[in-house]
Write the structure tokens for this entry.
Amino acid sequence: MVQAVAPAMIDDTSIERSPGYWSTVWRRFRRDPVAMIALGVILLLILIAILAPYITPHDPYRGATLRRLRPPGTPGHWLGTDELGRDMLSRLIYGARLSLFMGVTPVFFALFIGSAIGITAGYVGGWVNTILMRTIDIIFAFPSVLLAIALSGAMGAGIVNGLISLTIVFIPPIARIAESVTTSVRNLDYVEAARASGAGGLSIVRKHVLGNVLGPIFVYGMSLIAVSMILASGLSFLGLGVRPPEPEWGLMLNTLRTALYTQPMLCALPGIMIFITSISFNLLTDGLRSAMDIKA
Amino acid sequence: MASDTAIAAAAAPSAAQTAGEPSRALLEAVELVKHFPIKSGVFGRANAVVRAVDGVNFSLYPGETLGIVGESGCGKSTTARVLMNLIKADSGNVLLNGRAPGTPELSLKEFRSQVQMVFQDSYASLNPRLTVEDSIAYGPTVHGLGGGEAVRRARRLLDRVGLDPRRFAGRYPHELSGGQRQRVNIARALALEPKVIILDEAVSALDKSVEAQVLNLLLDLKDEIGLTYIFISHDLEVVRFIANRVMVMYLGRVAEIGPTDALYTGGRHPYTTALLGSMLSMNPDERTMEAPLAGDPPNPIDPPSGCRFHTRCAMAESVCSAKTPALTVSGAGHLAACHMVDPTSGHSKAAA
């Protein structure tokens, strides 16, 4: 039993501190091999994207009509060449840049806007909730692929328009999750106790609500990155997102489809990259979600 | 469970105040009404209301402990939340020292620093992402105390409620036991230096030995700081142990209110008698063989006319369903809402 001392004499160093929530989450996450591998793959992809100019064996834009559609394993072109004779490996490496960018950016912006809408609706409740969430429902009623295509089509092809349309597509699901998490938190006793201590709404949201809702919202957002990549690839495939000759996995899938019967392995390569990346994000999300599910 | 000496000890500090009731009320509830609409349909029209609190009057005197008892759904907790202004009353007033919160004389914020609350669920009432000291220090910082000073106050209070600050200040709620968490909640309530603390089933979820420790802590704090408690519980023994006065609620109304001993030994309202009859006796010869009261309480959406208890009352007569009984004085500081207490009611057993 520790001897009683005058509390005034207690300085910060003598206080035993427990590891915080996020360090506990990280400790649990580290014990999940699948999630750790997924994290490793994603970090590797990010590294590759950053170092692209230094690790690519060829210029991803320069082709040669004499070396078109070489199969994977060709000397000098490990992964073959595409329909214009450009080095596939180099293009896939550069493609990681655009594809990751197209996957992460819309989710990032949608997280900001969607959580702001959802948390406001959830915390304030009442008619504010009704107006915000019913508006969100209207957008949500469109199938996401269709909405992304329609918006991109209306605004015209291009990376920026693609990003904007994808952001709009992801705001409703994020706002919904944010709203439901916030609604459940705001009815908990500790929020009630904070109100009982005389705190105003903004202070309560900042100190008591955000810390408890941002985690789940963020995890949900992570799971959307894979969807965003696939949708962005789809837009590129339809000629609405990234435009040739930029290397982007979805677009590469599109342009290589003419060679589907002659070089099926070659055509599958960008698809394999999309698959690996999106499944890694999904597995990472799953791992994070279970690591965050700490029961008392 | 509670020995007679303990009851006497609990009653002693404020016996002088409760006996004659000359002192001014610290907190008053005047005709409090809270109905919850039941919404349905597309436009959310209210087509029925739950009469959770339906005209509740009582006064709380400085230094006393007022126990509120009643079965589940009788409006105990809603009364507490309306008192705290956590939910707005439909009508009626809460007065602190004669002033209503939310008016220029007494801001809601000021009111809330004077009246604090401890909730039943010790875990749900602490933010899982905040350390214990941060949870306690939050209230004072809201009221303008600097962060460092607030944390120092939090550590002093932890020490005061029997938790070593060095071991507990930096912990998270899930690392604490139920009793420890409830001590933290008490410290949090104390952090604003309130006059009144509303304890809403604050010890009900604790196991018996821990419950006794927390009750003793509450009694010590009351004596030292001069607190006034509203103690809501369904545990009649605990209320008898801690309360000076007891208020019995039934279906959103006050059935009876009076000094603890008078009420426990001579309840005037048949509901009080039935409720107390459900208490377990220490003497095996006084074993209760049949339920003192049959059936469930009526639906608060459509409460019975007149006296709300008449559907389950053995003494009910025609006057009981026709006329609502008013709270009538039946002894020193003892009021009961029963026609049998009111000589003018026309009930055949009415006191002459």
About this structure: Chain A touches chain B at residues 2, 4-5, 7-8, 10, 14-18, 21, 188-190, 192-200, 203, 207-208, 211-212, 294-296 (CB under 8 Å). The radius of gyration of chain A is 24 Å. Chain A has one domain: 31-51+87-292. The first helix of chain A runs from residue 21 to 30.
